[in-house]
C-alpha cells in the first residue's frame, strides 16, 4: 500500500501534497513554490502517475497517505482533499496540520450518492472507450473549470495516466464511493485551512459549512479562482497558506 512520492526543498516547514483526479504530484509545483521555507513531498495518488497499478479505496488511500505525511502539514485538492480528510480522521495524531482545497466530506443523501456511483461508472466506461487524450480534453472543458487555463505541460502530464487507471480511480475513489464524513468533522483536532475559489459557488458553500463544524479551522476564499483554486491563483494560494502557517507559529509562542 505504498504510494510513489518525491520530495524537494530544505525548508523547516514540511508539507505533503495530494493532487486531484487526472493529475499527478507534479501539478503542485507552481503553487508549492509560492509557500515559504518548505520541504515539499508530492504524492502520486492511487491509479495516477507513478502510482498507477496501485488501486486503493478512499479509506486505504487515507492510511497510505498518512504514512507518507507523518509529522507534516497535509494538503489535498478535490479528490486528494477527500483522501486527505480520510487520512486526518483515521490517523488523528499523524499530521501537524491539514489544508483542504475544493474538498468535500461526501454526499449525505443515500439516493444521491447511489446515483453518483452510477454516473461515475458510466464516465469510467466512457474513458475506457475514448482513451486518455480525448477524455482529458473533455474533462478540462467542463463548466467546473470554465474560468481555468490549462497549459500544454499540464495536459501532457495528465495524459501520463492511462484510461484504465483513470477509470479504476473513479470506480474506487469517486465521490459516490465516499461514506459521508460530515458527522466526524468535529473529531479533527489539528489546525485546518479550508480553501475554495470565489467562482466555485458549490465548494465555497461546502467549505463554509465545514468551517462551522471543524474546531480549529480557518476559511480562505480566493478571489478570481474557481474549483482549480490553487492553479487559478497560485500566488494568492501560497499567501493564504503562509499567513495561516504564521498564525500557527504565533499561537505556539
Mean pLDDT: 96
Order of helices and strands: EEHEHEHEHHHHEHEHH
Structural class: alpha/beta
CATH class of the largest domain: Alpha Beta
Provide the CATH topology of the largest domain.
Answer: Rossmann fold
Q: β content, as a range?
A: 15-25%
Helix content: 40-55%
How would a crystallographer describe the biggest sheet?
7 strands, mixed
What would you call the shape?
globular
- Which parts are unreliable, with pLDDT below 50 for 5 consecutive residues or more? none
Physical arrangement of strands within the biggest beta sheet: 1-3-2-4-5-6-7
Report the count of strand segments.
7
Secondary-structure arrangement, i.e. CATH architecture of the largest domain: 3-Layer(aba) Sandwich
Q: Span between N and C termini?
A: 38 Å
Total tally of structural domains: 2
Rg from alpha-carbon coordinates: 17 Å
| CATH homologous superfamily (4th level) name of the largest domain | Alpha/Beta hydrolase fold, catalytic domain
- How many DSSP H or I helices? 10
